[in-house]
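EI: anyone free to look at a 533-residue chain?
SC: sure, send it
EI:
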Amino acid sequence: MSVFPGDVISEPQFSLALSTKKPLPDIYDRTGKNLLVTTFKTTRAAVVKRSSFKNFDVHKTANKLSPYLKEEPKVLLERLSSGKYVEIANDISEKQKYDILNSGVAEVEFHKVWRRVYPSKSLASHILGYSNRDFDQKSSSGFERWLYKNEIKNNKINLSINLNVQNHLENILENAITKYEAEASFGIVLNAKNGEILALASFPNFDPNTVNNHSQSKTANQRFNRVIQGSYELGSVMKIFTLAMALEEEIINLSDEFDVWKCINKSRKKCLSDYRKSKVQYLNAAQCLINSSNICMAQIAHIVGLETQKRFLSETGLLDEQFIELYEMGKPSLPEKWNELSMDQISFGQGLGVVPLSFASAVATVVNGGFLIEPTLYPRDKSYKTNAKLITSDVSESMRYVMREVVKNGSGKKADVEGYAVIGKTGTADIPCNGSYEGCGNRTSFVGAFPGWDPKYVILISYEKPKENHARGIMGESSYHNSGPTAGEVIRLIAPILNIEHNPGKEVKYSIQGDLNNGLIEDCLLYTSPSPR
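SC: here you go
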């Protein structure tokens, strides 16, 4: 004979999981067709030690339950000794419930509870986050935590995520981590016009269905969202802002020349160097970005000045905490002393750690005509428009042209995709450790936009400590060999999904007259390294 419990006569502390109505909304991608998160009713078993059960034998109970829970008696004993209310099984079937009842342990009770489920498992996990079984905001992360803290009661929510784009981004990054033997990676695809996040990925990643109170500490590294929580020196991709800043201040134009054999050694033991020394002594400002010259960028920063650099970078949003519908936002790592030495370093991508999402948003501003955007996980109305500007439309046009030359003829060649006129910039940064930039590996990045003639989407790809592998045809550790090719592969797959015009004959226009002559660009391209840093 078995006695089945009726009403619940004992409960854990109050939680949303025990509510009578579905406590949280279902979450879909931007199409409203792809389900990302849902909630369903399930059964939980718990051992409740009441004062009326004076002769409760924890050892005997552990031995009785062990065969049905498929758990060692010693492990069960430790759990059963931890308190008066001990959960022993979750999401149990009717058969499991019957088996546990047949164990003969009178102290077992069953509760009907809601549980959050993630059908796509690890896909988009760093956006969605996770929730524990009781929907406690202290044991949650990502968008799930946003729901709890803001008490959002909608039945259904659509995010800005395009699940197909997200899937391609994650698959490519996951395969590339193995290919390049990198320790970690991240990527983002962002609408350059309105700030909608189409895809966001961080590796290693995690399956939110498996995260609970016991596994939280073990999965901390996998759950760390590098796109929004991390702060990194991204290397030469920062040169985009140095050039844009100088053009916006009208201190230089693209045809101004700089001595790239010049020795800049203020507060240094030796002269500042470029990854590869230029074969010609003078490069114009456009060539400085195409050839990725540190010496040139430091000179441009000196012309602009320290205070202007700080102000401009502050206006881009790189020096402040980013705010989106996630609470785990990281903060930039600013230099202890913003002096001439740090000014030089920041001009070419050292000395300032930026949050990747903030960086991608700032690049979108540079290429979209100069309009500042605020990233979001919610779809924005088609009429959405921002009027706040960082740079003029003419400066934005100049930057698109030079960034196109980087991809056509410079270190971004492997990111180019026929028919989309990809624009962008590579960056390979030595990772600082122990007070220096020596011997700690590098971080590679590519930031770009497509289509180049009217950028609609920005893409950022980055790897932590990738390695060369001649057996696999990977001839170097720089972004030319890994981040750039990955970005190209992602663009090739997602551009048709995003209905981007495929036009092999269309190129990035540069209509500003008198600023740059073709001869200077042609000269520059003769000296562009086949695989610059």
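EI: Residues 6-14, 517-533 have pLDDT under 50 and may be disordered.
SC: 👍
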